[in-house]
């Protein structure tokens, strides 16, 4: 029962966030540079005149008071109707959903990669605490968390694309080219995971089940990998999930550098040509995805860690 | 107490080298006019894309502008924006944290809900929205981080205030009939400072990376501003022919961020005795834009 109440509370907390997001997206079309009617006409390739401006205003419902316009806009938004892209002349949601799989693939690959290299490094670091290996790994993870993704991406592209000529400089979103952008994204996250996991593992070593494992004759390293790891990873579920949510919102810089046609690159390219319906749609779709992921994580975590209930 | 902290900090080599780099860069930013060999905005296509020479120590860019001079002026842009943003964040977050912690109740609840929203909102979304509404500029971009990043400070201050409220000296002052405002200024505020000073130093690094990143994708500083992010963006099309255009501004960003991180962590170790609280401050997350 308590758990149910907590879930309801979390859902209610979403309301103000949704209000802010929808207002932001709505005002984007109303306040932003230039009159909406003029911009719409120009996007249709029509020279704005007094008469057709009035007609378009009527057509778009721009003569209604703002709150009414907002409600009308919301009604369309819940059906994912964000209008037509000025740039491609196709429905915005269609355009965004078409690019979503590319972003999803990249997010999955980056998450997987960050775990693949952070888990062994953290195990090594925790097993041989204060050794040279531990110090090296800690320095590496500090540096990894410091290098901005946009610069790392450029440098990797230079190294592998220009110097070694292993990958094309302008790659496009073919699956065979996913390695570099995914690696670029995974470095900063992986570096954080190494740090968190290492300290969790060191914490976990003191617990009884580890003593029991050692008593059964398991070596320190094996005991840590077999029994310690699971318990050390559990508190990281939320962190990994939140980062996955961030990755799904489209990694603008990395997608741009590697010409990866995901939603982040689409949003920024649309910004350059002031394609406002796309920006609106992007903000709405991404924030809803993000909110949903966070909610699922919260609920999931209540089941993983029952202590949360006594919030 | 203060002497102890200073001694600890002075013996921390990493923190001191971080501080040395920071001071050097602040100096370079303030005296940019004096130490730059050239005007960072002077276009001269006759000397474009030159390698390093006595005249242009780091060479010139695609418009014949001196790279070294642009890097030095970029220091000014970067440090000025990051420090301004951090100060404004502190000016918002600290009072809100004190109010939430000291008054409690519905006020506390409201401030903390706002903090929840601010800390879960992805910065790239707000950046696109604000830049979409007001147009791309460095100042609009600064607003994004001011809107979002006051929240952790409010949270940290609030939790220290709640602890402090229960201490004997605050209760004694209350019993003696001191005014609320004087209790806050005399007893509460000074004792919340240690953790936020360390965290603010680390945040400066985060602001620098994010602002450079958004300028790189065209949502922040606009060309021809001498800004590291803009320089990276300009250099992108020369990745195969003149990679140094990309290497220098990136190195500057990494060096500055590393310096603030080293100094911030040193401050953190010196100022905060318990390792548990230290860990909270260190949880700064990745540098992805």
Quick synopsis:
Chain B: InterPro entries: BP-dependent_transpt_permease, MetI-like, MetI-like_sf, OppC_N. Chain A is built from 14 helices and no strands.
Notes on the protein architecture:
The complex is a heterodimer of chains A (311) and B (289). Chain A has 311 residues and is mainly α. Chain A folds into 2 domains: 2-77, no CATH class; 100-261, Orthogonal Bundle (MetI-like fold). Helices cover 75% and strands 0% of the residues of chain A. Chain A contains 14 helices and no strands. Chain A has helices spanning 2-31, 36-43, 50-60, 66-77, 92-127, 132-146, 149-163, 179-204, 208-215, 220-233, 237-248, 252-257, 263-272, 276-304. Chain A is flat, with a radius of gyration of 25 Å. The mean pLDDT of chain A is 86. Chain B has 289 residues and is an all-alpha fold. Chain B has a single domain (2-40, 56-286), classed as MetI-like fold (Orthogonal Bundle), CATH 1.10.3720. Chain B has 13 helices and no strands. The longest helix of chain B is centred in the first third of the chain and has 37 residues, at 67-103. Mean pLDDT of chain B is 90; it is low at 282-287. The interface between A and B is large, with 59 and 47 residues.
